[in-house]
Predict the 3D structure of the following.
Amino acid sequence: MFNPYLTSPAPLDSLWRVHTDGITWVPVIAASIIHRGYESRVVDAIVDSGSQFTLFEGTIGTRVGIDVRNGRSEQISLAAAASNARVYFHEVTLRVQRQSIRTVVGFCFELSVPALLGRHGFFDHFKITFDPLRRGMQIDRAIS
Amino acid sequence: MIGMESSNRLDLFDGIPPRTWVALSADRSRVVATGGTYGEAVDGADSAGVFDPILVMAPPKDGIPVYIP
């Protein structure tokens, strides 16, 4: 399924404006999680192959009834957080573009974006093609 | 093909502290509710009668944001 990038005027200097046509973009898709039948509302989730894990901001997990801090936890380094942060891993159902997968995501209360769809938990379930001409992503379920 | 409207959405977040949870209308044109947690923003959206919001987080004020909701 094709998913257009989230675009906006580039908040950049004149040099970058020339090289970006004045438009910046983010590979964002609407994602939600389901836990024991309770589904979150959709949040902006950044498709981020640079993130080792799939992460959601912690209060999302709390809201759907997960005892977040009771999960297996690790201290990890995050580009999208101020410093190292503790992440609590739980198995949930992840829903993107009307497709649901059972996977493990990390919940982090220090995350500065709603969610990151990373290599484990997302990229190992989907084939993603970034298309600069159409300014969007083709996302298909990887079927083995 | 350009996906979404390229209006300056950063203006939507004027006066909203960074990392605040924000419920946007489904077309992203307006702020429906805000909260210190995801749940507070959802509750605010429910109270406003908006049951299909997009939940985002307000971007930082200093520097170029990683993403512009």
Remarks:
- Helices of chain B lie at 38-47.
- The two ends of chain B are 19 Å apart (CA to CA).
- DSSP finds one helix and three strands in chain B.
